[in-house]
Amino acid sequence: MAHLLLIHCPDEPGLVYKITGVLFKHGLNIVRNGEFVERDGNHFFMRTEVAGEFDAEALQDDLGLALPPSAVIRLTTNQPKNIVLMATKEHHCLSELLVRHEFGELNARVLAVISNYEVLGDLTRKFNLPFHYLPHADRSRETHEAEVLAVLAQYQPDFVVLAKYMRILTPEFVAHYSNRLINIHHSFLPAFVGASPYAQAYARGVKIIGATAHFVNEQLDQGPIIAQNVIPIDHTQSAHEMAQAGRDVEKIVLARSLKMVFDEQVFVHGNKTVIFD
């Protein structure tokens, strides 16, 4: 079985030599390796796939002795992640993820879907998954979020995915899932905010549309970016056609970002990500 070693720490001379020396000492073979130094922050990142039998605690101890005291060291076998999906009314991102999950393309187990509307319940149940309808009407934001958190607590997910969940989350909610809450939105932000962004974009004659997937933090739509993509459009396309094209980009970008996160390719450092393809 292949194992992944994920390390990040302040950079200093000889880190790769020290790490590979410890791996050699433990009789491990390096199958694949990636490294990166962020020059501005002088910070080192390394993702290493190794094969062989070893004592995980002893390996971790030896790496801790070899590396700077503040080093973050993680060993994983990259098992499928447990996730809960949250959505509102739009089906495109949810259906894309449910189909990919059905065919084993996500390295994840979808445990349930939560929504503040009933619209997507039948779709979810076609995949034999629990659907939790938690309406927000006539509830304070705090009460509604407490209900959502209570359902999430039943599943203890590794990640929560906002598959076009159109409710602003409070910092208190986000704090429960730091760097484990992933969102997708159109790439017009911050230019076209609020309702009908594609109508606004159409009125301005934009020439590209796209999507951004990111981790959620306390600042709305400003968390560390995981993946983005854009496609060209022109004056012949209506606002409706632009919106359809935008939905296609959103669902692909979200699925791609999740695959990278679930395959342990993504390091979060400050408000940025370092990604090993």
From TrEMBL:
Residues 4-78 form the ACT domain. Its EC number is 3.5.1.10. Pathway: Purine metabolism; IMP biosynthesis via de novo pathway; formate from 10-formyl-5,6,7,8-tetrahydrofolate: step 1/1. Keywords: Hydrolase, One-carbon metabolism, Purine biosynthesis. It catalyses: (6R)-10-formyltetrahydrofolate + H2O = (6S)-5,6,7,8-tetrahydrofolate + formate + H(+). Gene3D superfamilies: 3.30.70.260, Formyl transferase, N-terminal domain. The active site is at D221. GO terms for molecular function: formyltetrahydrofolate deformylase activity. Catalyzes the hydrolysis of 10-formyltetrahydrofolate (formyl-FH4) to formate and tetrahydrofolate (FH4). Belongs to the PurU family. This is Formyltetrahydrofolate deformylase. The lineage of its organism: Bacteria, Pseudomonadati, Bacteroidota, Cytophagia, Cytophagales.
